[in-house]
Amino acid sequence: MLEVKDLRVSIEDKEILKGLSLSVRAGEVHAIMGPNGSGKSTLARAIAGHPSYTVTGGSIRYDGQDLLALAPDERARAGVFLAFQYPVDIPGVGNSYFLRAALNEVRKHRGQRELDAMEFLDLIKGKIKELDMDPELLKRPVNEGFSGGEKKRNEILQMTLLEPKLALLDETDSGLDIDALRIVADGVNRLRNPQRAIVVVTHYQRLLNYIVPDYVHVLVEGRVVKSGGKELALQLEAQGYDWVKPQTVAAH
Amino acid sequence: MPSASSLISPKEHYLARAQQQTDTDLPPWLHNQRKTAALQLRSLDFPSPREEAWKYTNVATLSKICYELPSVAPLTQEQTATFRAACFDPQSWNRLVFINGHFAPEFSRFETLPAADGFLGPLKQALQNADESRRMEPYLGQGITPDEHLFAALGSALWQDGFYLRLAPDKVLKNPVHVIHLGSTGSPVLPHPLWVSRHLIRLERGSKATVFETYLSLPSESGLTLACSEVQLDAGANLEHVKLQIEAPQTDHISSASACLGRDSQYQLLTLSAGSHLARQNLRVRLDAEGANAQIRGLDLLHGQQHADNHLLIDHAKPNGSSQQFFKGVLADSAHLVFTGRIHVHPDAQKTNAYQLNKHLLLSEKAGVDSRPQLEIFADDVRCTHGAAIGQLDDEMLFYLKSRGLPENIARKMLTLGFAHDVLENINDANMKARLETVLSDQLQKLTHDR
Ligand SMILES: Nc1ncnc2c1ncn2[C@@H]1O[C@H](COP(=O)(O)OP(=O)(O)OP(=O)(O)O)[C@@H](O)[C@H]1O
Ligand SMILES: [Mg+2]
Prior knowledge:
By secondary structure, chain A is α/β, with parallel strands linked by helices. Chain A has 9 helices and 10 strands.
């Protein structure tokens, strides 16, 4: 489903991803871990098509097509979804209005009928409940004044609404309380199916108890330096990143 | 005689028109006022960018044209359609329609107020009433005087008609008044029609009203609108006043509004300007007695070569007054917006609370804004805050929306709407709000599509 090959990405002429490769098949869940600043968000945002990230080499194929040839909104409509590490506040734009507009764009693309305000409300109410969110958050501007945890839940709400084929969750667990973590994880697990792939970026093994990954990758200085099964996360939790780092030095 | 008229200067042309004004039925005091205005006109020149108040708005183009007063003419189908599109007002509202500056009774419908409650109707009709004429005399032509600038003199000397609202003490006008100004070339067809109107609103002690003005012209009109509005609020009176300017792209618009606020009175003005080629709005509010409050909001939505200039003076003359100016602009293409907000606090006006904020969103690199706050504070115990911000659409926000599948143009429109919408927030009447939201949304469509 997702095939990242030798990807090189720069931001403001500084190379962040230095030949990263990653292969994710439909139905799989991958976890990406790694020290602060190693390029995890850069990878996620480059896949989503953020304009500040310049791809200087390599390729990203998604669902058999060249993802880099698509604009960010085309990628989203094609089923790529990024839950942001730091979701931005959008003053003046009502959350509910935004969610319905987004959903209808995606539905149009899939050849489905657009939902009117009432139908949408029915749908979103159910989702809000699943995620144990305050319905008032629908009336407020997107993310404005949301607490850290509320923002993260709002990201997951969008994901469950848009039903992407490839979901990238960038540290969705940080900022969530213990109950919320489980609720969010349940939401993600409900989405798990053989047609869908999920990539979670996290610093904490704890999340992976709830969302059990098929593979764990360690990202250091812009490269995947180690991959393994879910037990790799436990090992990292116990030993930190130092023991994986020398390999990057050796690679130079 | 077109050949002869092309030889005379626009000013001579207007002077000749002023002399030809055949309203012999006007009361003598008004007759004198018009004569004085014509004399002023003689001694004034078109404002030049060398003058501080006109520094960023050049009227050179329109000062070379001899605009002509159109006569009353029946509406064509096209004109009727344009007019109908502006009629959002529900049946219960009062509607006064002016076509080419002339009152159009066939399109108007409004309640006739009992004399004890006040007066609502066209200005010229009100002047026929000796009582009303006497009541108007201290106010009409006093807020905006012909010596201010040539356009004020022109407005005073040449106005055709306008609306007049007076409410007696404690009278609450339940149904809003919608005043529609429609400009067309008239008949015979004029290349440069001139639409001159004059309005007076006087709310006596404790009375309350809502007035919505729409200025529109037909799509191809290259005319000039000159509008003067005077507002007098007596103690405790409350006016909600909205002005919607959606004239055609070749129309020019110069308006002056002056409000004088009595003790504890409240004036809420919102101007939404989306039309015309050049628009200059002079707004002056005088807080003339203790405890008055003025809330002035403005939203300019400009694209193409449009130029708008909001020129405000908030004059705090007495203590405990408060004023808020909240102006926003959205500019696409090569549009240009000027904001001058002068706050003058007299030595007497202690405990004044004056606030000014203007924020502008540039959708294009060629668009520009000149924003000038001017604070003149001569009292020591006052609170005066002002701020200005000019920015572009935020890339992170844009990316966020696009990452959810919204196409670029829709994402841009959504953010732009989000930026502009709060100017309309305090509008109480649901019909009014819906109308303004529609205009906003339609206009943003033009400003954000395919760029
Ligand atoms: N606009 C920018 N200009 C310069 N450097 C940047 C910019 N944005 C990100 N970087 C750098 O890119 C590197 C990778 O950042 P990234 O956000 O991908 O890290 P991360 O692995 O997600 O870290 P964390 O675990 O802290 O979220 C960091 O060193 C960061 O400082
Ligand atoms: Mg990160």
